[in-house]
Amino acid sequence: MQEKATEEQKVAEPEVSEQNTEPEVSEQAEQPEISEESGKKEEKGNGLTLRRAAWIVFFAALVLAVVVAALLPGGSGIVLPEGSGTARDVITEQTGYSLTGADITKENVQQVIASLARPEAYVASVTNTLYWNGAWKEIQARQYVRDGVSLTAYSDAEGNTERFQAVSGDRYSAWRRGSTAQYSGSTGTVSADDIGMIPTYETVVNADPANITEAGLRTVSGVSCIFVTVSDPATNYQLTYWVSTVSGLLIQADYTRGGELIRSVVIDDIQQKIPPASLYLLPDGTSLLPQDAE
Fold first, then answer.
1. 201-216, pLDDT tens digit by residue?
2. Whether 220 contacts 242, CB under 8 Å
């Protein structure tokens, strides 16, 4: 749960405050204009750096989602449901893991991760939760993957699907339900995982082995999973992945700093089935699927 192009989207990396406040998203990047007549523009920009990759991926995707939602007609940006730390027990959410074996170690986890394969077609729910200062916010989405095309449908505060983002090869597309406007451009550094706000667990393969602090085999919600924690000594961030040994898909990832949970990603309701082709139609009727797809 990933490609380059000559014209890349320019997304400014936001600054993350170290004062335990809500993350801020910078919207100072040059953005494409979207019109009802043309409906298609290209973005130009600089690529993202590789340092602090996990956080860059998350905030880049969040900036992209905010900008596209704001530019499309009828959009005013992401509306996130809010809550308080007292209403949601973070510690309780992180329990339920039971060690089932020691077959996976820090020394061999990269080799094991490299052997995994994601299914060619599936549907899954994605929940990103941000924690700060005793409060939390959620971003809900549904991911549809088939024929090399990844589509993410984002929901509004009431749970209704309102906008879509898709990556097909080196092309990125975005549109809003009920609108005739659409945006299409090169993906640049944006991947299928980025539009779903999902950390790419395969990056563990290229991590410095010295930064892998923990690895093993555990059961999460009844599913056997490989877990691995990768640290960034320069930022003191840790990212722990839980990858299903059954489906080869990431089912949870936790971002922590100094032992404090600051972001959690949960992928559930995974169904290994082919999503309907009608989901992949742009407002102008163009299909994002290959011509030979059923």
1. 999 999 999 999 999 9
2. yes
Residue 143 falls inside a structural domain: yes
CATH number, domain with residue 108: 2.50.20.10
| Residue 197 counted as domain residue | yes
The answer as to whether 5 is a domain residue is: no
In this model, does residue 105 exceed pLDDT 70?
Answer: yes
Domain range for 175 is 53-275
Tell me whether strands 212-220 and 182-186 are parallel, antiparallel or unpaired. Answer: unpaired
Strand partners, 142: 125, 153
Q: Is the pLDDT of residue 152 over 80?
A: yes
Residue ranges with strand state E in 56-160:
82-84, 98-101, 122-132, 135-146, 149-155
Please, are residues 251 and 137 in contact by the beta-carbon 8 Å criterion? Answer: no
Overall number of domains in the chain:
1
Report the pLDDT value the prediction gives residue 62, as an integer from 0 to 100.
Answer: 52
Residue 192 lies in a domain: yes
- CA 215 → CA 227, 257, 265, 291, distances in Å? 5, 18, 18, 42
Span 54-75, pLDDT tens digits: 455 455 555 444 433 333 333 3
pTM: 0.68
Torsion of CA 150, 152, 153, 158, to 10 degrees: 150
